[in-house]
Amino acid sequence: MTQDRFDKVLKFLRDLDRMKIYYELAHYMEDGISVVIAVPGQRWEVDFLEDGSVYVERFVSNGHIDDESAFIELFAKFSDEEAPVTHDATART
After folding, report:
1. Which of 38, 39, 34, 31 is nearest to 1 (CA)?
2. What is the dihedral of CA 46, 50, 33, 80, to 10 degrees?
């Protein structure tokens, strides 16, 4: 990362600090640094890439709040685990 690109990241972090906006740094991509920001009703992911580009992705809440029954959907849709194998004794092959 060249100095200009590094300066861009540092300026952004200083602006967040000055505005008292909480953030975390992350490293998801080989060629970039991510700034993850959580504000009421939104989450922002700002990626500063080695080539100088900046990507901003915003996740905005629809205001609906679920209870713990939402865990079923979470685990069903997003688990990396394989579905359990079941053996049905009544099934014929």
Report:
1. 31
2. 90
**Domains of the chain and any CATH numbers:** 3-78 (3.30.160)
> How far apart are alpha carbons 47 and 29 in whole angstroms?
9
Q: How far apart are the first and last CA of the chain?
A: 59
Token pair 């092959």 in the structure block, residue? 93
Tell me the two tokens of residue 50.
């080695």
**Closest by alpha carbon to 23, among 4, 6, 10?**
10
Tell which residue, 35, 26, 38, has the closest CA to residue 55: 35
Distance CA 65, CA 10 (A): 35
Task: Tell me if 34 sits within 8 A of 25, measured CB to CB.
Answer: yes
| pLDDT score, position 8 | 93
Per-residue pLDDT tens digits for 58-86: 999 999 999 999 999 999 999 887 666 66
